[in-house]
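User: Run a structure prediction on this.
Assistant: Running it now.
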Amino acid sequence: MENIRDWCISRQIWWGHRLPVYYCRRCQREGFEEAENKREEKGNKRGIIVARTRVERCPYCGSDEISQEEDVLDTWFSSWLWPFSTLGWPEKSEDLDYFYPTSTLVTAPEIIFFWVARMIMAGIKFMGEIPFRDVYIHGTIRDAKGRKMSKSLGNTIDPLQIINELGADALRFSLVFITATGQDVFLSREKFLVGRNFANKIWNASRYILAKTQGKEDLCLEKIPEDLELKERWILSRLHRTIEEVSRALEQYRFQEAESRVYDFFWHQFCDWYIELTKPSHQEITQKVLVYVLEKTMRLLHPFMPFISEEIWQRIKEGSKKKSIMLASWPKKEQRWIDESAERDMNLIIEITQVVRNLLAELNIKEKAEVSLVLVNFPAHLSSYLSYISQLTRIDNITCKKEGVKEGILSLVKDTEVYLLLEKMEVEREKGRIRKKIEEIEKDIQLLSIRLANKEFVQRAPAEVIERNRARKREMELKKKRLEEILSRLCLIQS
């Protein structure tokens, strides 16, 4: 047996093809004097038999006390036969007929020759056909320091612990989300939080929708109503564009892009804008659209987060003939829902809202009653949707004019001039606050400049510390510039 292990073709693993070596326990137990010459002629020693077929009896003593070597042939010897040896080959089984050849192999780059090329050669040799057409090569998992994860280094992350702490969907989603096509993955425990946070967002949004539509039986959205509002036309158009983008990305094996499209649509378009706009509404069409978009999005999300999407889908489709989301068809883009004008108009409203929100935050204005908004060159056909901006910014006083005004803080959004007007006392107070803030920032910039000009500091400090100080200085300079621009546009309202 010690000679067998010296051949270096065996590994101490429990899968694979066992070595075609057998042992006669009787020969090894009772001695070898009578059969020694015969065994030497055959090239065997001490009750060891090497054979192409399974040995039932010892060819020297006739004993049936036969045991086979438990070690297996090297991994690559076994694995090159994997595409067909696992399906009943060499017998022509139903599984072999159905699953061979398959379509895609997913693998790491370091075993392209050891495994991928050998499987192709074995498929041509034994099956007369290559085992797969596409090979998706993913990156290597590394730790936060860039070292390849391995048990010997002790830098691995136990996926079961992540599942117990954050959930299986959070683990699955996060891994895809941080894995760019063809790039290595620098993994740390903190990076799984993105999946946990998204799962929480999905759950909370779904609870809101299901609570809002509770008790409503017919929420099927089959035909486009003639009186559909802008926000409904916009979200339905964005949904079907997302369906098209996700489907195309999956077909091209761009998994991170596909997942990012679903993430961006659900969180930043559906939740941040559409759901916010629906909160005061009790219209049936709005409830139908909420359910329709949620159900379609769960199907898009299912490959990435199978458990939460299944749970929510079951609650939406309670009583459905299809018992699982896995049996539901993949959503398809429907051209009838695509509305370019609705997307263009809603994007303008969103951009104006974002500009106003940023100004209110930078000015630290909490009391919206002292604020008014003037829009110049705002499209006339959108005047009926000023309520969207009012609701999203919580500014009640919004007016449209054809010419600019001399007061207020001016921002330009496409062709629309956005003026934020403040009461007199509010303006004076904000001017003083902004000037004080600029002075504080200037002191920080001066201290950072002195530190970075110090040759001794630059020579002795670690590179990451120097870069952190430089980044901090750039950040302060941008903040100062932004506040100076606001201050230059801050005017009093004329009485």
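Residues 424-453 form the longest helix (30 residues).
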